[in-house]
Amino acid sequence: MLGITGKKPDQQINFKAQTNPVAPTVITEILPKGILLEMIKIPAGSFLMGTEEIEVIRLCQEYEINCFKNEMPQHQVNLQEFYLGKYPVTQEQYQAIMGNNPSDFKDNPKNPVEMVTWDNAQEFCQKLSEKTGKKYRLLSEAEWEYACRAGTRTRYYFGDNADLLGEYAWYRDNSTHLVGQKKLNNWGLYDMYGNVWEWCEDVWHNNYKNAPTDGTAWNDNYAQTDYRVLRGGSWVNSPTNCRSASRGLHAYHSYEYGFRVVSLQDS
């Protein structure tokens, strides 16, 4: 599992999470059988994506592996406004659109759907778009990290202290549960860490050299691979895998993998 800005001093500033998050703008989509899909407005803006070199060096030394180098180079990304699912797609939402529930853990319909491949997530977005008349898709990797950070620059959107992760996420120390039970981030999003890894639109690249800077998905002929990006960590992962900049990759399905959806809402 997994800035080139010329302003190195700025990259080392340790921004604190906002203590009084602004009430989010929410649009609610009504799916078949009255199932609700809540979408949060994510403001346009810029951020530094990835991890600065000094932190990557620390992680590599601490864990004696070099996989964290895929979070470099840190680079500025500029994004337009979009709407993002308040939660990972749940089993009842998936059932309402797809007519089936592939999940292993079916004890609660509000658990995140899992055992879905990247192609399954794409098909869900296509059918959801057809039913609603709006364009839904997976997040780009840049959109995911931007929304997760919600204006912060710390390891987590609540700061740097991994001991607090249990207040915000279902992860290795507390298993998996229905969505929305932990604390939200500053933009009103739940479960950005833990519960399930979330599929992104992007093909996997081993680092951010030549990555897009406009927030779009990175899909090009450079990466001849079936692997797609996963973000956020899951219920079986450590706090290190649940950091805002942590990256994962896979090509198949797992009880750890789910997704959430994006819409521009004006399409």
Structural key phrases:
5 helices; 267 residues; single chain; 4-stranded mixed sheet; 18% strand; alpha+beta
Structural account:
The structure is a single chain. The protein is of the alpha+beta class. The chain has a single domain (24-263), classed as paralog of FGE (formylglycine-generating enzyme) (Alpha-Beta Complex). The protein is built from five helices and eleven strands; from the N terminus they run H-E-E-E-H-E-E-H-H-E-H-E-E-E-E-E. It has helices at residues 8-11, 53-63, 91-98, 118-132, 141-149, and strands at residues 26-30, 36-42, 45-49, 75-79, 82-85, 136-138, 197-203, 228-231, 247-250, 257-258, 261-263. The chain has a five-stranded antiparallel beta sheet. The chain is globular, with a radius of gyration of 17 Å.
Largest sheet: 5 strands, antiparallel
Q: DSSP strand (E) fraction? A: 15-25%
- Tell me the radius of gyration: 17 Å
Order of helices and strands: HEEEHEEHHEHEEEEE
Low-confidence stretches: 1-19
The average pLDDT is 89
Q: In terms of structural class, how would the helical and strand content be classed?
A: alpha+beta
CATH class: Alpha Beta
Strand order of the largest sheet: 1-2-5-11-6
Based on the structure given, which CATH architecture is correct? Alpha-Beta Complex
CATH topology: paralog of FGE (formylglycine-generating enzyme)
Principal-axis shape: globular
Number of strands: 11
